[in-house]
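Colleagues,

For the teaching module next term, I've prepared a clean inverse folding example: a structure given as tokens, and then the sequence designed for it. I'd like students to try predicting residues themselves before seeing the answer, so please don't circulate the second half yet.
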């Protein structure tokens, strides 16, 4: 999602479409940011924090699973 928003923002500012952005060196930038954001989202897992220990009430892991499934259907 972050990459999509960044690509749209560059297109609006510079007028370059996605193919032009990738041809002008955008692919390495995209790959670097994808790795950084992936590692950042996995940081709690590396620290030993589980999803079950942080889920309670409305934000329970079971509720999040069903909310995600419902969002995919809509």
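(Answer key — instructors only)
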């Amino acid at each position: 999602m972050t990459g999509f928003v960044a690509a749209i923002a560059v297109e609006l500012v510079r007028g370059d479409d996605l193919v032009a952005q990738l041809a002008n060196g955008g692919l390495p930038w995209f790959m670097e940011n994808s790795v950084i954001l992936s590692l950042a989202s996995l940081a709690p897992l590396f620290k030993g924090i589980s999803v079950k220990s942080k889920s309670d009430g409305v934000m329970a892991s079971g509720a999040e699973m069903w909310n995600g499934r419902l969002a995919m259907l809509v």
